[in-house]
Amino acid sequence: MWTALENAHIPICMTDFARKIREIRKNLGMNQAEFAAAIGATQGSVSKWETGRETPRSDALSRIASFTGFNLLSLRTGMEHFHLTPGGMRATRVIGTLQAGYGVERITWDESEQFEIVLPMPKVWQKVRLTAWLVKGKPVWEKWPPGAFVITAEEIEDDEELGPDDIWPSGFDYESGEYVVASIKRGDLFEVCIRKYVLYDDYRAGLFPVGGEEGNSNRPVEITHGSRQGLGVTLHGLVVATIRYEVPEYRLMHIPDD
Hints:
By secondary structure, the protein is an alpha+beta fold. The chain has 6 helices and 11 strands. It folds into 2 domains: 4-81, 434 Repressor (Amino-terminal Domain); 88-247, Umud Fragment, subunit A, CATH 2.10.109.10. Helix content is 21%, strand content 30%.
């Protein structure tokens, strides 16, 4: 293991480079073996890059730039100019569906049914636990049509690999006017949906429908402010992003004439 004293003998440019390589990998949500496989390197090489014992050769830098979207010139010439073009990529797991007025037995899918999508994400969100949900059913929510992926931030991940210069985000409370993913118990089933978080006072908040819901789905549900659970309701995360398509999936397909 490299100690602080050993690192003191490494040139500053190399320690900066090692830190940035580690940031790239962690921003992608990968361990060293996964990152190495993705860029055609060995885990041993990645370990040496991250500890400052070696720097990647030009071909490895090109593969890193191609895979991550980082600026190749910055990778080659200096970490002080290190930046993303146009943002870091991160794998996010899709864990279930959102559908107003529809009950499911389980809030999330079986692990075998879950899958990952890769999204551009702000680098400072790399320690935040992000999950994704797939909108299904009738077009109820204008902002979140069927087929859209809703990305939520839940809680901070523990990470034993934190370095001294890593950014560690603070926890957050839901604020009035923000959108959340919630599960509401309906008999023996759960309605997993998007709700608007509205503060009543310092202690109470309401989860309001966002438009288009009918019946029981069109009624607000009360929850204690600062709590993730209430009577028959659980919050599963703050809506931070949406991936949606502006045309139906068949729009770009050729349909032959009869």
